[in-house]
Specification:
This protein is mainly α and 87 residues long. The protein is built from three helices and three strands, in the order αββααβ. α1 (4-34) crosses α3. The longest helix is centred in the N-terminal third of the chain and has 31 residues, at 4-34. It is elongated.
């Protein structure tokens, strides 16, 4: 019995998961460059083209103050993924 189709499925799944991890790392690094405190990838959620930040209200407000700069930098760094909002 041939199980290559299952192996191909898991290979595609692995590539998709690693691509998503790269997005989280780039978003975290870009936000950290704009604000005073570092932000962990666990406090970032990406749904579609919107980035959700979980954390203290002070952290979220600081991110929202620098929102346009962060979105512009992300657009330059990740041209294949368009982010339109940070919440």
């Amino acid at each position: 019995m041939d199980y290559n189709h299952i192996g191909n499925f898991f290979e595609k799944l692995k590539q998709t998961l690693f691509k998503n991890e790269e997005y989280y790392d780039v978003v975290s690094a870009t936000i950290t460059n704009h604000i005073a405190s570092p932000i962990d990838t666990k406090s970032i959620k990406i749904k579609g083209s919107v980035i959700y930040i979980q954390g203290s209200p002070i952290l979220r407000n600081e991110v929202l103050i620098h929102k346009t700069g962060i979105l512009n930098d992300l657009g330059a760094m990740l041209p294949s993924k368009k982010f339109i909002d940070i919440r």
